[in-house]
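Is S-adenosylmethionine placement plausible here? Inputs below.
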Amino acid sequence: MSLFRRWTFPLPEPVRSSGLPAREVAWKVLLAVAAGAYADAALERELNRQSLSGPDRALATELAYGAIRQRRLLDAWLDAHGRVRAEQQPPRLRWLLHVGLYQLLFTARIPASAAVSTTVDLAKQGGLARLAPVANGLLRSVLRRREQASAGDGSALVPAPPWLGLPLNEDPVVSFGLRHSLPEWLAADLLRWLPADRAEAFARACNSSPPLDLRVNRRRSDRQSLAAAFAAVAIRSQALAETPDGLTLLDRPGDLRGLPGFGEGHWSVQDRSAQRIVPLLDPRPGQKVLDACAAPGGKSTQIAEWMDDQGEIWAVDRSEARLRRVALNAERLGLTSIQQLSADATALASLRPDWIGSFDRILVDAPCSGLGTLSRHADARWRMQAETIESLVQLQRQLLEGVLPLLAPGGRLVYATCTVHPSENTETVAWFQQQRPELSLVQQQQWWPAQELDGSCAGDGFFVAVLERQQPGA
Ligand SMILES: C[S@@+](CC[C@H](N)C(=O)[O-])C[C@H]1O[C@@H](n2cnc3c(N)ncnc32)[C@H](O)[C@@H]1O
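Reply from A.M.:
I modeled the complex. Tokens:
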């Protein structure tokens, strides 16, 4: 039996237009991102402009983020079936077709007829009436190609991959990058860093939905009580094995701030991998701790919770605006031990000479390429360039060099990133140790984003290195 039986021709008439506003939101988000906006900001703006129902908001989010992630693969379909290549299409048409194609290739629950008809409807309503037949013809042509390819493919029981029917280049890097919609440089790097099966798993995780993880404020609640409070409003949650305070939500609430305990500061949103950094910093009540790249404060507030809000915590960040969010988060969570300083952490030793040799713990949660969080940031893979990584490495080295004089003898320095790039991680740490032989490396770990059996992403990719400055005479 053909997998594509639901895509029979001719498509039913009249055109179905339910769900049109959600698709329009997705289209506008794609246009905004192509013009340079960040995907999450563009989506929030568009959602605020429309009053969509809960399911329509979810649909708009899925279509917008999904189509942005799959840009390269969707362009390849346009290249194969359009009169002109994707990049030469009128941009409004190109991004509208991405919304339509994404539905055809990735959303089994949306009938092909609805994907095609809503795309045609949007073209007519959105100033592309002249091009509506082009959109219609192209989407139908892709459907026909998929039908043919599926008929020739004996293995009909598994869902057909979204590239079925697309001519694939024989070069393994090009083919891998295209199938998983990754930029060429990243595809090449991944296949150098990892065996093919792990590179495939990484790519699948990048293209799946991230989990919604929370960190319970251990000073105000615990996982059991919070899970019970969520259950009372029909939100299922589950304790995370890898962190002592982590809960993951199995249901998606509309507005998180409406969930029990938010206003009372019982919990924060924080990915499970991010939650594993502060335990390795091991802050103790009464200590003096520097969080050198602190905003928006996920880890500063976790440090304060772990120290039972007793001690001196300095949250430093170059961005004053982002630093304000640290203060807001600390206030909501009922934490008073965090002080803020807006400053370039590479220059702290000269800005605050009184701090030299005084910190028991220093965390450098460095600005990085974010390659471990691609599922969370749909557009990040298209922003990052291989060359940008080199300048990030320079900054990361300067940050480590800049904060080291502030570490007390016997103190602990933790370097963390949310990337998987070895230049930013193990190679930076190796370089730092070479410069500073007085440091001992207690441990370093690379966590890769992994995929759960249900296809969702199980946590961000993170790197962490724990370094200690030896006591004099030790
Ligand atoms: C990965 S984010 C930190 C996330 C934060 N630790 C948390 O858990 O919420 C990196 C931060 O480094 C800051 N940053 C970048 N360069 C910096 C510098 N030279 N000095 C201080 N902060 C810097 C950025 O503004 C950004 O807020």
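Short version: Residues 1-17 have pLDDT under 50 and may be disordered.
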